[in-house]
Amino acid sequence: MTGTQIRNLAILASLTIVGCASAPQGATDPAPQPVATAAAPARVVAEDVHSFARPAQARVRHVELDLAADFETRRLAGTATLTVERVSGADEVLLDTRDLEISRVTDAAGQPLEWRLGEPVERLGRPLVVDLPAGAGETRIVVHYRTSPDAAAVQWLDPSQTAGGEHPFLFTQGQAILTRTWIPTQDSPGIRQTYGARITVPAPLRAVMSAEMETPEGVRVDGGLAYEFDMPQPIPAYLIALAIGDLAFRDIGAETGVYAEPSVVDAAAHEFADMQRMLEVAEAMYGPYRWGRYDVLVLPPAFPFGGMENPRLTFATPTILAGDRSLVSLIAHELAHSWSGNLVTNATWNDFWVNEGFTVYFERRIIEALYGVERAAMERQLGRADLLATIEELGSRHPDTRLNLDLAGRDPDDGMTDIAYEKGATFLETVESVVGRERFDAFLRRYFDEHAFRPMTSTAFLQYLDRHLLTDDALRARVRPDQWVFAMGLPDNAPPVSSDAFARVEAQSRRFAGGAAAAELATSDWSTHEWLHFLARLPDSLPAERMAALDQRFELTRAGNSEILFAWLRLAIGSRYEPAFPALKRFLTSQGRRKFIAPLFEDLMASEWGRELAREIYRTARPRYHSVTRGTVDRIVGWSS
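Above: the chain's sequence. Below: its structure in token form.
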């Protein structure tokens, strides 16, 4: 069967993902899970070009880790015991690995198994092929290995890179295809696995994972403390996550809490005070939260993303600790992933919008329920502006402006743009505007229930949408779902966005553009969102005296809110406002959030004078960044080691 035939297969009777014969490839066949409706879910057929796995023959069902963290050598070492399910006649299993040092592979009784590493493939690593003993059904294999000190998923931080400054720190970041750099398993988003772990760390450090903590205080062993974890719900490998550090914990509500370094944890608990309410609002809309607890871990500043939706334990950047709870939409976003992304997962990275578009839509519904229609309207309008800017930058006929992408031969990170997030959310807003919120909410509740713990492709979702919501030609013609998913650019039936608060901001923007002094602007009660809109409405470049007037009046160079400071620094680069450059250097060297880092370096590299400054700053900052951020900025500045 060819890849084209696979992609064009219709929805079948039961849920399976099947790969084609050419490598690298992947396919998924999740174990049956209880659902909240008797309706049989659709069968999803997809090909994952970012995995070597052949799960139609043999696939990983469970991973059991026993690893020790060595901060001196910067390695994780130990074993991964994999429970492999195979069809009759399958005599080998293919695993994804990258830069792992494999010492041996055995069966569960310790008897050696034959194994070999295939040829390396750029970005994907090398397939680990293990010969299986004769038989069918379930087999356990044990891989003895250690990670590279430069494993792309694992960031080792020196004490000086933490808030406390006394102890080292480790965290992993698996999305999209980096889990294979610390766990030998089938690293495809459609291949769901349960997992358990025993992690040994130096005392007094604490380990936490995206799983249930079974030994909260740790068990004393030679050389440190051992922590044990269990994740009974099947998840894709990219959601297996580990962090080790000097961590404290605060309860927020009955099912929610926050971990952070001791000097940060109280501020984080204050910032996230609404987490329990967010969880209750989300459950009221789209059904029960199925993961037990929902906690957040605030990481050191090197974390490359705003947040990562690891089940039970969202990893979050400290850049959202604004002090006034103005940036907690990020927490709403990561919580929403507990339904869209973690519960119903994109089958391949070509379908990334199935993860993020749904989550942005859901996030804004949570924000609206908690903080009001106007705040949600402002966030929606800011998101639309980001989407239009991305389309303009790429070009409206660029294939990456489609929701359903073709990432073959490319890094899946190439698809992590505002197209997946904002165009995906706008598509769902379009459906809601046509069928009405009540019907759309009922549809989404059913969608999450029927596809819980299962993968989803773009085509399968559209067919489900046709069967259960757009049930007549008139509705379908008004929504135009195929155009939204498979065509480039932004369809012209996107619902308009508007905000009364932003209209008032724009009036002040016009006053400033007309020559009004900064001190005359009416800004006393502005929220973060209003400031962001104001700064976005200014020209890309302003005269030095106008920049200085804004800065003197509003102290923007000293802003403690990371989003406002980021917007101001972009304007400072465009205006070559040198009084802001020390703050620019501090911002770029004190945190590694790619959303902030990449655009600022792009802005600097756009001018002759800025290139030298960009490379000077990057020489200092690069060792502090996660590999995800380094990979992006290396391309921007033309870095060569």
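The two ends are 43 Å apart (CA to CA).
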